[in-house]
Structures are given as structure tokens and as C-alpha cells.
Specification:
Layout: H1 3-42, H2 47-82, H3 84-88
Helix pairs in contact: 1-2
Length: 89
């Protein structure tokens, strides 16, 4: 197995991992920014108030995008397993 092939596989795996996690990370970011603005405007500084909306946003996006994430990861794993005989040589 050549070095270029290994680098290509690792790059593809990293790209897929970023692509799969990006919706949840963006939902957490937006929820965190909105809660921070709300806390700044109202002068309420409570840790629970900052945690729960972010957790709900991340869980909601995860539940919504789970079928897509499963399809992307399954197709990557299936393609990797199918190419395994070529990768071993």
C-alpha cells in the first residue's frame, strides 16, 4: 500500500467526519450565541440556562440528521471494505 493511498484514505475519513459532525457543531454554536446574547441582555448568568438549550439543539439536529449520517458512514465503510483486497496488495 503506497503512502499516497494511505494519505488519501485518511483525508477522506477526516473529510467525512467533519461533514458528519458539522451540523451538530453549528447547531450548538448558534444556540450558544443566542443564549449568550439573551444572558447579556437580561443579566441572567446561570450555567444551566447556557447548557440546556445547546444540548437540546445538538440532540434535535442529531435526531434529524441521523439517517443521513448513517448513510454517509455506511457508504464509506462499505467502499473501504470493497476496496480492501486492493488495499492489501
Amino acid at each position: 500500500m503506497s503512502d499516497a493511498l494511505v494519505v488519501g484514505l485518511v483525508r477522506q475519513a477526516l473529510e467525512i467526519s467533519v461533514m458528519v459532525t458539522m451540523p451538530m457543531l453549528l447547531a450548538g454554536l448558534f444556540a450558544g450565541v443566542l443564549v449568550s446574547i439573551f444572558q447579556t441582555v437580561t443579566s441572567i448568568q446561570d450555567n444551566v440556562l447556557s447548557f440546556i438549550p445547546r444540548a437540546l439543539a445538538i440532540f434535535g439536529v442529531f435526531a434529524f440528521t441521523f439517517p443521513w449520517m448513517l448513510q454517509v458512514l455506511t457508504s464509506f465503510a462499505t467502499g473501504l471494505i470493497r476496496r480492501l483486497p486492493d488495499l492489501v496488495r
